Amino acid sequence: MPDSDPSEASSVASQVPVVPHTPSPPVPVTPPPPAAQSGSHGHSQPHAENASADRRQSSMKDELVVVGLAFVVMTLATSWYKRTTSTGTSTPPLPPGPKGLPVVGYFPFLGPNLHHEFAKMANHYGPIFKIYLGSKLHVVVNSAELAKVVTGEQDEIFANRDPHTAGLVTSYNANDVAWAPNNGNRRKLRKVLVYEVLSNVNLEASHSYRRYEVRKTIKDVYDSIGKPVDINEILFLTVMNILTSIVWGKGLAEGSKYGFSVEIRDVVSRIVEIAEGLNMSDFFPVLARFDLQGVKKKMEDQMKRFDQIFETTIKERTGSKSALIGEKDKQEGKKDLLQILLELKDQDTMPNSINMTQLKALIVDMFLGGVDATSAMVEWAMTEILRNTKVMTKVQDELAEVVGLNNIVEESHLPKLKYLDAVFKETFRLHPPLPFLLPRAPNRTCTVGGYTVPKGSTIFLNVWAIQRDPKYWDNPSEFNPERFLNYEGLEKWDYSGTNLKFFPFGSGRRRCPGISLGEKMMMHILASLMHSFEWRLPEGEEYDLSEKFGIAMKKKRPLIVIPSQRLIDDNMYL
Ligand code: HEM
Predict the structure, then answer these.
(1) pTM, whole model, 2 decimals?
(2) Spacing, Cα 512 to ligand 1 middle (Å)
(3) Is 192 touching ligand 1 by the criterion CB < 6 Å?
(4) Residue 446 annotated in ligand binding
(5) Where do the structural domains in the chain lie, given as residue ranges?
(6) Residue 292 φ/ψ, nearest 5 degrees
(7) For tag attachment on the chain, is the N or C end more exposed, with fewer CB atoms within 10 Å?
(8) What one-character-per-residue DSSP string does 507-550 give?
(9) pLDDT tens column, 52-111
């Protein structure tokens, strides 16, 4: 495929000067022609002397011209070389990339699984390439080394987003953490989320909510013993309920007091569904105001429903009756997140004070950031365990040893489940739920890997390809949790994003702030499902690993399996 794109001329030409061609070699100096060849007619002696003097003069002139030309060419060549090799003084070219069509860019040539397509292109174009999707320039980064430049050395520039339509609506116009530009407001909101809302103390204080929801799920599965169970469905529900109770307290999650939990579940599922579709407005900004597919309108309708839930519950909470509920929970060490956020909202003069819109946007962030990715991950991990008998035996042995077959899984067991932790890491390596993370957008034109990355372009960090790159991983497509156990201290494998060969939660300033909560939920739910039940496929079915690209990369076909009782004591299921 050719490396130039005709549509570049109009959209980025102003930012990228044309790089001159390699200079031609200097012209060789031609010796003066012999006298016999200089005239074809023959001449007398004096004339011959004059003619010879003329020839000498003109040949000197020629030499001077040639030497001059050579000098100019050499000077140009040197200056070109200096310009293209020095960092500060000239703009390097755009990254290479496939040629697209005018207007639509490369869209017509792409299949549904963008991460597969981009991994193939990375093999062809190298560690960084560009691609036009619609009228927008996208830059795809495919190596750990360049990912480090984007999320480390130049993180300040790249810690910006270019929110798509759905993101703008759900974030109350980027008034949140996920879609905000990299400014003081974003930093404040992120601090609030990380240090106030999702702090270790608060996560500890809300552990009984998680325990309650996980136990409820185990009981529901127990009631379905012998029947096919849609794992994705129960995971989505469990994570939704956990987040609902962490945010609003148990009353709302049970649905008994306000009856809102079903409504929240429905709103979140619909938002995820709408956001998963391709919205042309995001790739052709000139069309955005027409909202041709109605994505903006549909999203706004759902957000109105979310808003209604906020209005009602916040009014209740700030009224005398619910303030008492908050007080009671506080005494029991169960302060829900809404309560924490409302307290921050009231501290008008404090640096961490937030307004009502930001409060709502933070809660939406938690639901949209947490539910889909967490449930998708547990489903992937469970599929990998069930289809690898050796892995399953090791997981079950570890659970029997750490938890015991006369016991149920508690959060206190989780740090001891080292093998299950390695299973999750290996699952994250092969099935990162956000294969390109959340796209970034530099707020300045800059240089990455020797290429210009223009301000405002959309940056995909191709974590899916990096985590399967044979340059970094032995037998990369093999599911082998041991690689995260037996590394003998050579590499540090965790979710912090410091090792850019493995960063499923992102890296740098925009790294996921929900890692601890996500990890607790994933480990607790999966450990409980694997500890409490044996699982088998329905007759004639096979385990399937095909993927569906969306908000989070999920299984194309949901995992449907049949549970049977594993623990002898029936009381362990109540
Ligand atoms: C297994 C579960 C989860 C996975 C795999 C996951 C993954 C990610 C990833 C890959 C990013 C983008 C990072 C980047 O652009 O560099 C992200 C961002 C984010 N996640 Fe998570 N996440 C999970 C759970 C959660 C939870 C439970 C919450 C909240 C309670 C959450 C809230 C967020 C937010 C707010 C952002 C935006 C951060 C920013 O832009 O500064 N996530 N997550």
Answers:
(1) 0.83
(2) 4
(3) no
(4) no
(5) 24-85, 165-573
(6) -55, -35
(7) C
(8) -GGGS-TTHHHHHHHHHHHHHHHHHHEEEEPPTT------EE-S
(9) 555 555 555 555 444 444 544 444 344 434 433 344 457 899 999 999 999 999 999 998
